[in-house]
């Protein structure tokens, strides 16, 4: 279980909630409310205060890379650092079934990074996040740039992982998507995070 206690940073009031394994919680709220700040604070990308623990182990007990292997994060604009798509994956062969299920060709690993479209980058970044086998996955509008067919595949893929025990926080502006993917909801408004009824 991921437990967050009084987590805060500039732009985010102290937030406390927990997330169980096998649970997907939708995070909703207006643009600029602090949803991305919340996710970034959980993965410890910016200075923040408060307590975050996984299975009773404090985040501070491990180094940043170890924490981010357990708590994966798919930003709204994923970062890339090499000139070929495949070099961003520790093992392209492991990624391939997910890549193909998401409608990308097997040779996408050889693509220069200048080639993938916004939606293709998002799907590739999702595969990268999933193949790292996190225990918790934080998704920031993962389907914003995708067509309806790809949205369905992503939702199905995440639902399978959740059934297998993955814990997910899913930021979405799409009310219908929130209802499809989650039973529990967090609302972020002006930096305040609270539980919200469905
Ligand atoms: N590093 C920063 N320092 C100060 N303020 C920031 C920083 N990063 C973002 N902000 C501000 O904090 C507020 C919340 O930003 P955030 O990106 O979390 O919004 P959001 O809820 O994810 O919005 P959207 O739905 O548009 O993605 C915004 O007003 C933003 O300008």
Automatic annotation (TrEMBL):
Keyword presence, Nucleotide-binding: yes
GO molecular function: ATP binding; ATP hydrolysis activity
Keywords noted in UniProt: ATP-binding, Nucleotide-binding
Nucleus is among the record's keywords: no
Gene3D superfamilies: P-loop containing nucleotide triphosphate hydrolases (3.40.50.300)
Domain ABC transporter: 2-198
InterPro entries tied to this protein: AAA+_ATPase, ABC_transporter-like_ATP-bd, P-loop_NTPase
Name of the protein: ATP-binding protein
